[in-house]
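stuck on this:

***
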Amino acid sequence: MPVYDRKYGHLSVYDRRYGDLSVYDRKYGDLSVYDRKYGHLSVYDRKNGDLSVYDKKKGDLSVYDRMYGHLSVYDMKYGHLSVYDRENGDLSVYDKKKGDLSVYDRMYGHLSVYDKKYGHLSVYDRKYGDLSVYDRKYGDLSEYDRKYGGLSVYDRKSGDLSVYDRKYGDISVYDRKYGHLSVYDRKNGDLSVYDRKKGDLSVYDRMYGHLSVYDKKYGHLSVYDRKNGDLSVYDRKYGHLSVYDRKYGGLSVYDRKYGDLSVYDRKYGGLSVYDKKYGHLSVYDRKCGHLSVYDRKYRHLSVYDRKYGHLSV
């Protein structure tokens, strides 16, 4: 049964059989249609070009905004609100029940997902394949770089930072509490540890089996050769260099300040001492009991034989 209201310019049509009702506004060009069977209410706004559809049965609501090219859809059953921007191609989905929010940015190729329950924010870059995940609860931030195969993990609570380089296989770990920076080179098997608080540096070379340790406080540099068992220690403060040869049991000590050199031979029990200032060279042979002293200044050579008690000059 059509009804026309001339004053307002409304044309209403009611379908008694199906229970549908249609209302047309001639002045503004709006059209409203109600479908009783499915419980749909559709409203078209000619001026703005908007179209709204409400599903009473499900409680869903869809709104299209022609001016901005937005399409908004609310799903009452799942509590989802979806907004599509036709102009930019962006899509946003909000989950009212869980509080989650997902946003896709077509221009930059970014997909952002926020998980309210766990406080996680994940951002995926489709162009470069990078993925970033932020954990609000613990304050951790993880980033994956697909191009270089790098994975970075930052722990806000402890202040630690870990970086993995898949291309080279390197792993770098910074411990803020102790001020340690550790770098592992998977290719060579080398491991370096730097103590920022003390300024100490330790480097392990797997290829040659060397372990080098620098002590900033005392100015010591120690190098250990695992293969041969040799140990070298340099004292920067006093200018001493000490070298221990495990194979032969020798110990050599060089004094850079005075130029003195001392050499101990454990195998034969020999001890040699060179005094650069006075030009003295002393050699003690424990096996034979000989002590030899050479005075370069006076060109004297003294030899003492402990066994027979002889002294030769």
Notes: The CA atoms of residues 289 and 308 lie 9 Å apart. The chain is about 0% helix and 60% strand. The longest strand covers residues 10-15.
